[in-house]
Amino acid sequence: MKAPFGLALLLGTGLTAGPQQPTFSSRVEAVRVDVLVTDRGQVVTKLRPEDFEVKDEGVLQDVDLVRLEQLPLNIILGLDVSESVNGERLEHLQSAGASLLRGLKKDDRAALLTFSHAVRLRQELTSDIPLVQETLAAVVPSGQTSLVDGTYGAIALSGSDVGRSLLIVFSDGVDTASFLTPDVVLQSARRSDVVVYGIAMRGRISPTFLKNIGEVTGGSVFEIESTKDLSQTFLRILEEFRQRYLLSFTPRGVAATGWHKLDVRVKGRRGTVRARAGYQAGG
Amino acid sequence: MVTLHTAIALVLMSWTGFAADAQDSVTRRLDRIDRLQQWLDAVGQHEFGSADDALLRVASWDRNTLWLVWQDVSSVVSLVREPSTGVFYTPIEPEPFSGVFRLPQPRPRTRVIPYGRDDINRLRLIAKQVTDRGGEDRILKRGATLHAEIAVLGPVLPVPDSSRRPRSDSIMLYLADGQQTGVDDASVQWEMGRRLLDKVKPKESRKLGADPGADETVRLWYLASNLYMQSVEQTDAWHVERSVQLFPQDPEVLFVAACAREIFSGPQIQSVLLSTTLSRDLFKLYGDEGEELRRAEKLYRESLERDPNRAEARIRLGRVLNRRGRHQDAIVELRRATTGTKNRLLLYYGNLFLGDAADALGLAEEARRAYQRASELFELAQSPRLALSAMAARAGDRSGALAAIEEVLARDQPARADDPWWSYYIAQTRDLEGVWTALRVAVTAERPRR
After folding, report:
1. Which residues pair with A66 in a beta bridge?
2. Which of A176, A202, A209, A217 to mutate to test the interface with B (most CBs of B within 10 A)?
3. Which residues pair with B9 in a beta bridge?
4. d(CA B244, CA B257)
């Protein structure tokens, strides 16, 4: 049975935690929801499965919590290397990428995809992190910006049944060259379980697309004043991503296909939950 | 400064155009007729298509000099057409730039040019010389083409003294990747060309005054200049408007103007309109995305009414309709266009946009077929593959989504030519050289009368 795009198959690998130690049969489709909980800006850690309440189309679900320390990360860098990212901006971007890559652990993997007018997969997911660093260091900016196309390409390539996937998209400007429309990419993102964090330069034009894609995937967008802030932002995203929870549930009492709206809350305490808005089930 | 080849340049015209302080005419009148003679000689001697001495000489003149030349050419045209003329006025055009933006200096008014008696006698001699050399229209058209060639060669012409560089009250915004990267004076050369051509009065015209819209060479001049500007991603909304004012029935001019409006609706220009810190008044000739798409649709339709076989106009109309959310209308145009052309490039665009429209309407099979045809026409093109991949992804076919794009995204050095989508906004200029050649042939063919 082929896994639908965006729905990961969690097998009985013992990755789940909690008192019940649930076992998934090999044919069960589980939904994974990557969740960040904050309280007054501070990330809340050490929550247990019973602290969460997940409603799928309004129907309460039994939630399990995946032990994150046993799950490697797949970090996909989707970077704008258009003409405007040159000189100092490029140096900052390369330096930020290097800082982030240095922060990865042994089993983590990374990939590099760049976009100008063209989208290029420079390095597919690999655990050879120095190779990704070298590839990033060799990038030469040129052309216009295909932010939407590039983000789509990165989402499509990020699908992995192993580990958790984080896509960091950086762009210093507006999309000037994409063929795909934001709506098409948002629809595709709904079927993916990658979490997308966008980084945009603060300006008069709001980074609407990155905000929307962050919202749909449970990620976020950071608007920075200067590319000098990139390293700090990259590391902040990585740290935040490591502090998230990965919830898992097998949908019960809901339709097998179509868009499912998710509502994730923490019980019995104050906290802001950031998780993907829903998921697309079935064909 | 970003070069014109890698950046969009947006020309914002002042309502006064390149009008310099007319008081200069008083201090300069002693040598102005000599300068006029130099200009006429250059216009006569210039070999079109070459950066010869005549072109370089005129290219080095500042805007005040050009303004005086323009006044004096107008005086000569008046003398040729009405030899008894005795009083000459500064030829302020009927507000060609009104509603764009207001400069702080007082509005120049038509005033009498303070020619001395000797000046007028010399002008009469020049008027006779102009008549003998083939008439004033020939000079006006040759002059306009000379100035157009200076504008084209502008970025590579030597500028020995920046203070003498022709300057304009219009400004040029340099844009790169959707961001404003600089501001400079716009070249006055295009404006000089337009003003010269505004005086053209073809023999066959029944109008009392000038009638440039009845002249084929003027039409070619506007076609060539618009296409050139689009080819170097330079936009000048007034230039486009003037083209349509003069040739409202010409399918080629309407098509080129529609392309310009479609460009204005695009993210390169719209992002600057949304983000600029300059006064919004500067951009009054540019509408928002919706308004520019509406204008583009109207112009494409007008072009097609006059030439229904213009497949490129129909394909672009289809894209504009699609962007306006009128997918059903778009698909009708795109189906018709893709069956009416064998041009590989146009078929690529047609199928790409047909796929988009069909996808929006939920016609998945038709969309897939169209994208596949586009992909077969340009095997390395990313756009149709991305679209096919996104369709597979939305259908839950992850491996299909990956397979559609893996090959093209893994290419080491994608070339611009790999995906014509990347050059869509300049694709209509691919026969630019042919149009310029036609213009040069037409201007050169206007032989002096014997």
Report:
1. A16, A246
2. A176
3. B174, B234
4. 7
DSSP β-ladder status, A164-171 and A42-43? unpaired
Query: In sequence order, what E strands does A71-215 have?
Result: 73-80, 109-115, 119-126, 164-171, 195-201
Quick check: A184 and B394 CB within 8 A? yes
Give Cβ neighbours of residue B143 (< 8 Å, ≥ 6 apart). B39, B43, B73, B192, B193, B196
A 120-149 near B (Cβ less than 8 A): 120-121, 124, 143-145, 149
With tokens 């037409």, the residue in question is B442
Residues B52-105 have pLDDT tens digits of: 999 999 998 887 888 889 999 999 999 999 998 888 887 665 434 333 333 334
Instruction: Identify whether the C-beta of residue A179 lies closer than 8 Å to the C-beta of residue B421.
Output: yes
Q: Within 10 Å of residue A39's Cβ, how many Cβ atoms? A: 12
- DSSP H helices, A121-229, are 129-137, 147-158, 182-189, 208-217
Q: How far is the alpha carbon of B156 from chain A, nearest alpha carbon, in Å?
A: 22
The reply to whether the predicted model has a pTM over 0.80 is yes
- The answer to whether B12 touches B240, Cβ cutoff 8 Å, is no
Average pLDDT over residues B190-203: 93
Residue of chain B whose Cα is closest to the Cα of A179: B383
Q: How far is CA A178 from the centre of its chain?
A: 21
Q: What is the DSSP string of B214-260?
A: G-HHHHHHHHHHHHHHHHTTEEEHHHHHHHHHH-TT-HHHHHHHHHH
Q: In sequence order, which residues have a C-beta less than 8 Å from that of residue B259 and are 6 or more positions away?
A: B230, B296, B316, B428
CA distance A168 to chain B (A): 18
| Nearest by Cα to B359 from A4, A187, A159, A175 | A187
Give the distance from residue B421's alpha carbon to the nearest chain A alpha carbon, in angstroms.
8
Searching chain B, which residue's CA lies closest to the CA of residue A184? B390
Q: Does B3 touch chain A (CB under 8 A)?
A: no
Query: B383 touching A, CB under 8 A?
Result: yes
What are the pLDDT tens digits along chain A (283 aa)? 333 333 332 222 333 333 333 333 334 478 989 999 999 888 998 899 899 999 999 999 999 887 776 688 999 999 999 988 989 999 999 999 999 999 999 899 999 999 999 999 999 999 999 999 999 999 999 999 999 999 999 999 887 667 889 999 999 878 999 999 999 999 999 888 899 999 999 888 889 999 999 999 999 999 999 999 899 999 999 999 998 999 999 999 999 888 899 999 999 888 899 999 998 887 5
Give the three-class secondary structure for A142.
Answer: coil
Distance from C-alpha of B338 to C-alpha of A28, rounded to nearest angstrom: 46
Asked if B85 contacts B79 with a C-beta cutoff of 8 angstroms, the reply is yes
> What's the gap in Å between the CA of B404 and the closest CA on chain A?
10
Query: B386 and A152: CB-CB below 8 Å?
Result: yes
Biggest CA pair distance of chain A = 55
A18 vs B: CB within 8 A = no
Chain B residues lying within 8 Å of A152, measured CB to CB: 386, 389-390
- Give CA–CA dist B82/B210, Å, rounded: 13
Residue B313: closest CA among B235, B258, B242: B258
Q: pLDDT digits over B206-250, tens only? A: 888 899 999 999 999 999 999 999 998 888 888 999 999 999 999
Pick from B438, B449, B448: nearest CA to B216: B438
Q: What is the pLDDT of residues B145-172, one digit of tens each?
A: 999 999 998 766 665 444 555 555 667 7
